[in-house]
Write a structure and sequence with these properties.
Elements: H1 8-24, H2 44-48, E1 77-84, E2 90-100, E3 104-121, E4 127-147, E5 150-163, E6 166-181, E7 187-201, E8 213-220, E9 227-233, H3 243-246, E10 250-257, E11 262-269, H4 270-275, E12 287-294, E13 298-306, E14 312-321
Antiparallel strand pairs: 1-2, 1-14, 2-3, 3-4, 4-5, 5-6, 6-7, 7-8, 8-9, 9-10, 10-11, 11-12, 12-13, 13-14
């Protein structure tokens, strides 16, 4: 790793930025640190529901959560988003999906994180330049039907991470299924296994694990209510002391349709609240809120995610029906 000396101040700033980003994602496992951004929320719609998105339908951004959801996209759609994180950390994404006749639904996604710019110094702490750090993932997904209302999907992705002139790369795949049960109270059930892969080039000599994540969940629309209610269980591949602990990392979210154009969303992430409970009162850590405006061709979404005493995240998404 050929990174020249940093000033003490900027060295601490870099590690603080990376550490806060890990806390913000609710993922503080050292073995997964290099590619932890793969576990973060991407779209504002999902962020407003605390990431409970594995069983959602008809949304191009399901490529980032459960590629089987691409099979339910009803028309060509593109989406772009921006997230203002802590300190100087910024991230964003772009996605697109459409139906290819005789082939199936195919989607594309790119998401990135920029950790900011840092001073580069020599051995005497003289500034000799600047450097940056960032992460990038490029995904291509395919989805189809096993049978009516039962969908499958797979996405392959290339992952790249860099700090100054050092870099690490990896390849991975996501697999997902989605089952829809119509009726007076329609239900959809989803499961997604993400980040099955390996590093191509580690930062140093030790290869790191990718942040493997198995998520299962469901969405229900209660009869006579304009509401989608979600419950997801995350990190089911993590080693736990007992069976109950496997289901302690859950998120709950909901989306109210207030009118033809307006949406309101809320969410709660139990893992994030647990990890960010600092001091006597965790405040609103783990809670998220958001809303959206759905027009004929465009839709705009916003989400606020509380990190308690640490701060908050704000994300914006613009989507287009093509």
């Amino acid at each position: 790793m050929n990174i020249r000396l940093l000033s003490k101040r900027n060295s601490l700033r870099l590690f603080l930025a990376l550490g806060l980003f890990l806390l913000a994602q609710g993922s503080v496992y050292p073995q997964d640190a290099t590619y932890s951004f793969l576990l973060s929320d991407v779209s504002a719609r999902s962020a407003g529901m605390a990431g409970s998105f594995v069983s959602m339908q008809n949304d191009v951004n399901t490529i980032f959560y459960n590629p089987a959801g691409l099979a339910t996209v009803t028309q060509a759609e593109a989406s772009f988003g921006y997230l203002k994180n802590l300190l100087d950390i910024n991230s964003g994404y772009a996605s697109y999906a459409q139906d290819f006749s005789g082939i199936g639904k195919i989607g594309f996604g790119v998401n990135y994180v920029n950790y900011g710019t840092f001073d580069e110094t020599d051995e005497l702490a003289n500034k000799i330049g600047t450097f940056s750090a960032g992460d990038l993932a490029v995904s291509v997904g395919y989805a189809g039907e096993f049978e009516e209302n039962f969908y499958y999907g797979v996405a392959g992705k290339f992952i790249y991470s860099s700090i100054a002139d050092a870099a690490s790369s990896a390849i991975a795949a996501d697999f997902g299924i989605l089952y829809y049960i119509p009726g007076a109270n329609p239900v959809s059930l989803g499961a997604s296994l993400q980040n099955v892969g390996t590093q191509l080039n580690p930062y140093l000599t030790t290869r790191e694990n990718l942040p493997l994540d198995l998520t299962i969940g469901g969405t229900i629309k209660p009869q006579h209510l304009p509401l989608l209610l979600n419950l997801d269980f995350h990190r089911l591949t993590e080693t736990q002391n007992n069976l109950a602990s496997h289901f302690s990392m859950y998120s709950i979210g909901g989306e109210f349709t207030l009118s033809k154009e307006l949406r309101f969303r809320f969410g709660f992430d139990n893992e994030r609240r647990r990890d960010l409970s600092l001091g006597a009162s965790p405040g609103l850590a783990g809670f998220s809120f958001g809303g959206g405006i759905a027009l004929e061709k465009l839709h705009f979404d916003y989400a606020f995610t509380s990190l308690g005493k640490i701060g908050s995240l704000n994300s914006i998404t613009v989507g287009m029906n093509l």
